[in-house]
Amino acid sequence: MTDLLQYSPNSGTFFRPTTVVEQGYVSSHAERHNITSDVERFLKLESIGITPKVDETTGANEMKTYMDTCVSFKDSQYSEKLPWKRDHPPLPSYYDVSARRTHIVVKNLRRDPFLFRKYDDIINKQLEKTR
Fold first, then answer.
1. Cβ distance 78 to 72 under 8 Å?
2. What phi and psi, each to the nearest 5 degrees, are found at residue 40?
3. What span, in angstroms and rounded, lies between the C-alpha atoms of 50 and 9?
4. 126, 118 contact by CB (below 8 A)
5. Rounded CA gap, 7 and 13, in Å?
6. Cβ proximity of 19 and 7 under 8 Å
7. Which phi and psi angles does 62 have, rounded to 5°?
């Protein structure tokens, strides 16, 4: 048996590499790791064939409901709504944050007439495209 310590980067500790079994416990770090992973693998229910039931009919019913209510065909194109979560609480509007930010942008644009005209041109072009 050697008295040299080895460093384990996984656990951040030093250990003595031995294969001596003392009082029923394996004292080798590598063997302890192998036994631990074997036990974890054994205890997983999937390894013995027990798997959680998946209700396939629920997924199929939800897809059919989504297709019937959210997908439409108009003018040779399909359009669909986003599949939102049911019973989701409403999201915050952040109106105050956006109003404050808009006020700051307008204040800065008033100081720079050239930049103000550029913004105005871009916004007007976007408005023309929507008409």
1. yes
2. -60, -45
3. 35
4. no
5. 6
6. no
7. -65, -40
DSSP structure class, residue 47: G
Side-chain-facing half-sphere of 19: CA atoms under 13 Å: 1
pLDDT, one tens digit per residue, over 66-108 is: 888 888 888 888 888 877 777 778 889 999 999 999 999 999 9
Indicate the pTM of the whole model: 0.33
Question: Would strands 21-22 and 13-15 be described as parallel, antiparallel, or unpaired?
Answer: unpaired
CB of 43 within 8 A of CB of 50? no
The per-residue pLDDT for range 20-72, each reduced to its tens digit, is 444 455 455 556 666 667 667 666 766 677 666 666 666 778 788 888 888 88
d(Cα 65, Cα 59) in Å, to the nearest integer? 10
Beta-carbon contacts of 20 under 8 Å, excluding residues fewer than 6 positions away, are 1, 27, 28
Take residue 35 and report the two structure tokens written for it: 């036994």
Q: Give the integer Cα–Cα distance in Å for 64 and 56.
A: 13
- CB neighbours of 45 closer than 8 A, spacing ≥ 6? 51
